[in-house]
Amino acid sequence: MILERVWEAVKWVLRYIKDTIDVGLVFEKESTGKQECIGYVDSDYAGDLDKCRSTMGYVFTLSQAPISWRSILQSTVTLSIIEAKYLAMMEDMKEAIWLQGLLDDLWIEQDLLKINCDSMSAIYLAKNKVYHARTKHIDVHFAREILDEGDY
Questions:
Q1: How many Å apart are CA 72 and CA 93, to the nearest integer?
Q2: In sequence order, what are the beta bridge partners of 37?
Q3: Packing angle between helix 81-105 and helix 141-149, nearest 10 degrees?
């Protein structure tokens, strides 16, 4: 009985492989001759109704093919949509730093690794060096240090 189920599963896997043999990712150089790595990040606000936590996600593409992605509940409860998007942007920046090192190890030339975020408020919070009473609970030092280095 168990062997029959295993055999059916093996046949299903082999049929799947046979039918998708021509499916894959294609990495092509841009017209500039370089492969461009771009990150996209987004977050909702308190999407988890049980714990009031936000869901964040990001995807990185290399020459328009996805190479790294993640979607997860944030570890802390955020107090605003700006904070939720800002924290998602920080996770994205950490992944970007790791990817930059990986691409360097693979000898893939990168001028700049781009990150796209749809919240101008979160971007402004990361770039603005002025203290604000409403955002004093958000640790913005990591983002500002990365942005000041000019690599992103």
A1: 15
A2: 62
A3: 40
Distance CA 13, CA 6 (A): 11
What's the pTM value of the predicted model, to 2 decimals? 0.66
DSSP 8-state symbol, 41 = E
- Tokens describing residue 104: 């360097």
Which domains are present in the chain? 35-149 (3.30.420.10)
- Amino acid type, 148: D
Residue whose tokens read 């046949």:
11
pLDDT confidence of residue 33: 66
Predicted pLDDT at 141 = 54
Tokens representing 2 are 């168990």
Bridge-based pairing of strands 65-73 and 37-43 is unpaired
Q: Among positive and negative, which fits the CA dihedral 107, 108, 111, 113?
A: negative
Mean pLDDT in order along the chain per 10 residues (152 residues): 87 91 75 78 83 89 87 83 84 88 84 81 71 54 59 51
What totals of helices (H) and strands (E) does the chain contain, helices first?
A: 4, 4
